[in-house]
Specification:
Layout: H1 2-11, E1 15-19, E2 25-28, H2 30-36, H3 40-43, H4 57-66, E3 74-84, E4 87-99, E5 103-111, H5 113-159, H6 164-188, E6 197-199, H7 201-215, E7 223-227, E8 235-237, H8 239-259, E9 266-280, E10 283-295, H9 323-333, E11 337-343, E12 346-355, H10 357-361
Parallel strand pairs: 7-9
Antiparallel strand pairs: 1-2, 1-5, 3-4, 4-5, 6-8, 9-10, 10-12, 11-12
InterPro entries: HATPase_C_sf, HATPase_dom, His_kinase_dom, HisK_dim/P_dom, HisK_dim/P_sf, PAS, PAS-like_dom_sf, PAS_fold
Catalytic activity: ATP + protein L-histidine = ADP + protein N-phospho-L-histidine
GO biological process, one term: regulation of DNA-templated transcription
Length: about 375
């Protein structure tokens, strides 16, 4: 019977925590790990009240009162949970008292952001696909006449090469045609993607950081913090493409910190396994790897947050607006998605890569 009860708790989509009589968390189900982005072993080192925003004194008091014998349970809406510094989750909370061999509380959490996030994810994906198809159609239309323009300029140069003042003009035409072709090629993306090979995501991140550190030696005051989960399994990756995706995001963070002259600038790269079923791009996976890239810069301007992953959208005067669009295309090729959460003083990009059963078993596809 006890095994059946545990199996039921593990299958629930609702996050459930059980505490002892001192409010110390004794059990957390898989949905709780997923909601709080924290392992159950870490949750079980905390008290229930440790998760709450300390400003919610009435909620904390209600929880403590619920421990008393014959106490009634309670529920509360829009409760602010802070499982880790700078991480805020809003939930509905349901608390029930239990007693028997022991005494404690059953706390159920329903994330208010979940449904909103799912709707936003579907909307963002459909808009991105429509924008990508439009951009690629335009890029193909632009690429064909560019070859004709460049060829005509070369013929003019050959025919009238003796007139030096004319070759200056033809050189400008050729150079600008080449520049536009390079831009169009980036819009179209790689024509022949590399095959996927089994690799560790930390190897990819370390390669990117070595490149970024070499490129940013002039801004060596930026501190890179690495918080890796060493237990993550190898997954199927296009290593070169994944390096490009992560590099694009980290480079954007470096530019944002540098241009804003952020005091004590830092970029945190965190990897974790997200246990429990996860719906990604309409497909349900048993679990996922999350790579979080966070900076303490000025945040993304509000006027571009909704269109952030569209091609040619940028807040930088010298930016092309292609970095995040290319990163999203790469992550989508790995059946994953990118989430972004930004406010002044903190911007986080989460790269969510699904773990398939064969990855968990360590088998080849």
């Amino acid at each position: 019977m006890q095994a059946d009860a545990k199996a039921i708790l593990e299958s629930l989509a609702t996050a459930v925590l059980l505490t002892d009589h001192n409010l110390k968390i004794a059990y957390a189900n898989t949905a709780a790990e997923q909601l709080f982005s924290t392992s159950r072993s870490k949750l079980c080192t905390l008290k229930l009240t440790d998760l709450l925003d300390k400003e919610q004194k009435n909620i904390i008091e209600s929880i403590q009162l619920a421990l008393k014998p014959h106490a009634q349970g309670f529920n509360a809406s829009n409760v602010v949970i802070i499982p880790e510094p700078h991480q805020t989750i809003r939930t509905d909370l349901y608390v029930t008292h239990y007693s028997g061999k022991g005494r404690g509380l059953i706390a159920e959490f329903k994330g208010l952001d979940y449904q909103q996030k799912m709707t936003q994810e579907l909307s963002q994906r459909s808009q991105h696909l429509a924008a990508r198809d439009l951009i690629r159609s335009l890029a193909h239309e632009i690429k064909n006449p560019l070859g004709g323009i460049r060829g005509a300029a070369q013929l003019l140069e050959i025919t009238y090469g003796k007139y030096e003042h004319l070759t200056d003009y033809t050189q400008v035409i050729i150079e600008q045609a080449d520049r536009l072709k390079a831009l169009v090629d980036r819009l179209l993306g790689p024509q022949r993607p590399n095959p996927l090979t089994r690799s560790n995501i930390h190897y990819v991140i370390e390669k990117v950081l070595s490149l970024e550190n070499m490129a940013t030696q002039v801004n060596s005051n930026i501190r890179f913090i690495k918080d890796y989960d060493p237990s993550l399994p190898e997954i199927e990756l296009d290593v070169d493409a994944m390096q490009q995706a992560i590099l694009n995001i980290i480079s954007n963070a470096v530019h944002a910190l540098t241009e804003a002259h952020t005091p004590h600038p830092q970029i945190t790269i965190r990897t974790r396994a997200q246990l429990g079923s996860r719906l990604i791009n309409g497909i349900k996976y048993p679990s996922a790897i999350i790579v979080s890239i966070a900076d303490n810069g000025p945040g993304i301007p509000e006027n571009i947050r909704e269109t952030l992953f569209y091609p040619l959208v940028t807040s930088r005067p010298d930016g092309t607006g292609l970095g995040l669009s290319i990163a999203q295309n790469i992550i989508e090729r790995h059946s994953g998605l990118i989430e972004c959460d930004s406010e002044r003083g903190r911007t986080v990009f989460n790269l969510i890569l699904p773990l398939k059963k064969n990855n968990l078993a360590g088998k080849e596809d």
